[in-house]
Design goal:
heterodimer; A: mainly alpha; Helix Hairpins; 0% strand; elongated; B: mainly alpha; two-stranded antiparallel sheet
């Protein structure tokens, strides 16, 4: 029997994996993928809660999150292309002109 | 038969006008060969003026609209006004900036307008979905604007860092919203407020609240969620930096205030402790780091972090007086900081070559008016009477004392005394030192002159006669309490 807790634990794990990816990976594309993973982990929670509570609101939210995540990744990839054209690398350790 | 909910387009007219103007600017930009940026700027500025008029009736309203997704009240009116003022001034400053850089970007103004539409929905949203969509509309626009300079590798790096950390914080915000939804079964602020008033708040609900707090702290650049601020403010085009430091901050604080006072009001004891710590860290780190900067944009970035700390004091105070202080502070801050960034844009010249504090040497002699304006803005940032910044700090500190947060105010006063040092360093350079080589004289453009005159006059005027504006702020926060 798959209960609400299973979904929530899976979602929390995926979210943590996403955070770890953003923090530890150095490749820009992988970081963007990890951000997507975080958003989708949240989507999973929303859908699970929506089913559990019997309310449609959570599922509507998920549709909006998907739209926003797509827009964000489009801008992110555009910026990645611009950065790659200027420096020939997408390793974020090499992108460090601005330091305090 | 599906019932059609009532649609109140009149209430969102200011946002609609800006949105349509943005589309118009994008379309016309395709057909105008040369001077497309000027066309975009004119359309944008006209739209801001019309939207200011369309915003006026909101002041006397207090009605939910679009099935309770947004609310039209005095609070929304006040913040719409702040947003429109900051967009209008940014457009004026940007015209000069783009001419100086030799760029003909009409998209610049279109994106600026779109992101202010996002801000307007964010400040009037009463549903976490609306606040999230508003937040993202504004953020994505600002990510693009940060990297809008095509040849600058600094700008693209800044925009990359902003995007990564911005989406990271949005994801945390979202997770918070999901947990709150699971705990309370509702995403509207009214539903959440009912849940928090019921007294039996689950751990999941509290974690959700904490994650929302982190998300908002990222957007207002509170320590320890401030890491992106100096880099992004440094790399972005100067007028956009000004816009980010006032417009984005005002919109984020508006949603922060609305969410935390309206729906977590009954859990205030819990979150005001956390905000106390954040405020202290923000004030101390912001001011200390600003002391050692040699780049004026970075100095202003740390100063803007410090100002977020002062504004947080008003939230910790947790009273109507504190919230009114925040509103007045933001009003004063918009004019002061945009004015300062207008001067930075002027002095920066082509390619932002002169953004070191040393480039301000001798400005008092070569451009007395510009140096005087900069001094007034810096005085106001430091909180010295008779400028607007003084009244703002005074009101917020007063509210905190009234609520019994004496230590917080002592730290606030001490750190703002320390801030006088780095603001005055720039004034000293302008009046007491001479440049090594006499630089070419700066050329004013009419739009820039208008922006500078307006900001100087308002900073002094609302600093000397603050009563009307303080009353307006007090009237605007009534709907939150």
């Amino acid at each position: 029997m798959v209960t609400l807790e299973h979904y929530l634990v899976l979602s929390a794990l995926l979210f943590a994996l996403g955070i770890a990816g953003v923090m530890l990976r150095r490749n820009l594309i992988v970081i963007l993928m990890s951000l997507e993973l975080m958003m989708n982990a949240v989507n999973l929670s929303f859908v699970a809660f929506s089913r559990y509570l019997g309310s449609i609101e959570g599922q509507i939210f998920v549709l909006f999150v998907m739209v926003v995540a797509a827009a964000e990744v489009a801008v992110g990839l555009a910026i990645a292309v611009a950065v790659f054209k200027q420096r020939g690398t997408i390793n974020i350790n090499d992108i460090s002109l601005l330091k305090w | 038969m599906i019932p059609v909910p009532e649609i109140n387009l009149g209430g969102v007219l200011p946002a609609l006008i800006l949105g349509v103007a943005g589309l118009l600017a994008t379309l016309l930009g395709l057909f105008v060969r040369k001077g497309a940026a000027t066309v975009g700027a004119i359309i944008g500025f006209t739209a801001v003026l019309i939207a200011l008029a369309a915003n006026a009736p909101l002041r006397f309203m207090n009605t939910p609209a679009f099935s309770g997704m947004i609310v039209l009240d005095t609070f929304s009116w006040f913040f719409n006004l702040l947003i429109l003022l900051s967009v209008g001034l940014t457009i004026l400053i940007s015209m000069k900036y783009l001419t100086d850089q030799g760029l003909d970007l009409y998209e610049y103004f279109a994106i600026l307008l779109f992101s202010s539409v996002g801000m307007m929905f964010m400040v009037s949203g009463t549903h976490l979905l609306m606040i999230f969509v508003g937040l993202e509309t504004l953020s994505i626009g600002v990510y693009v604007l940060t990297g809008v300079l095509p040849k600058s590798s600094k700008a693209s790096e800044a925009s990359l860092k902003y995007l990564l950390l911005g989406s990271f914080s949005s994801a945390l915000f979202l997770y918070g919203a999901a947990l709150l939804y699971g705990a309370s079964g509702s995403l509207s602020l009214a539903g959440l407020a009912k849940y928090f008033q019921s007294g039996s708040v689950s751990t999941m609900g509290l974690i959700g609240m904490g994650l929302l707090l982190v998300g908002f702290s990222f957007k207002v650049a509170a320590v320890p969620f401030h890491m992106w601020t100096p880099d992004v403010y440094d790399g972005a085009p100067s007028p956009i930096t000004g816009f980010m430091s006032v417009g984005v901050k005002a919109a984020a604080f508006a949603a922060f205030l609305r969410v935390f006072f309206e729906c977590f009001g009954s859990a205030q004891v819990t979150w005001s402790h956390i905000l106390w710590i954040l405020a202290v860290l923000t004030m101390i780190l912001g001011n200390l780091a600003a002391l050692v900067q040699s780049n004026i944009k970075r100095m202003l970035a740390y100063s803007s972090i410090a100002h977020a700390g002062y504004i947080l004091i008003g939230m910790v105070a947790g009273t109507a007086m504190g919230a009114a202080g925040i509103l007045y502070y933001l009003l004063a801050y918009i004019f002061t900081n945009l004015g300062a960034f207008a001067v930075v844009t002027m002095v920066g010249r082509k390619g932002e070559a002169n953004i070191s504090i040393d480039d301000y040497r001798g400005l008092g002699k070569s451009h007395p008016a510009l140096a005087l304006a900069m001094s007034i803005f810096l005085f106001s940032l430091a909180g010295i009477p008779p400028t607007a910044g003084f009244i703002g700090k005074f009101t917020i500190f007063g509210a905190a004392i009234a609520s019994g947060y004496i230590w917080l105010v002592i730290i606030g006063v001490l750190t703002s005394a320390a801030s006088v040092f780095y603001y005055f360093r720039v004034v000293m350079k302008m009046y007491m030192e001479a440049p090594e080589v006499e630089p070419e004289s700066l050329k004013f453009s009419p739009s820039m002159a208008l922006a500078l005159t307006l900001t100087v006059m308002v900073v002094l005027y609302i600093g000397i006669f603050p009563t009307t504006y303080l009353n307006l702020a007090t009237e605007s926060v009534k709907s939150l309490f």
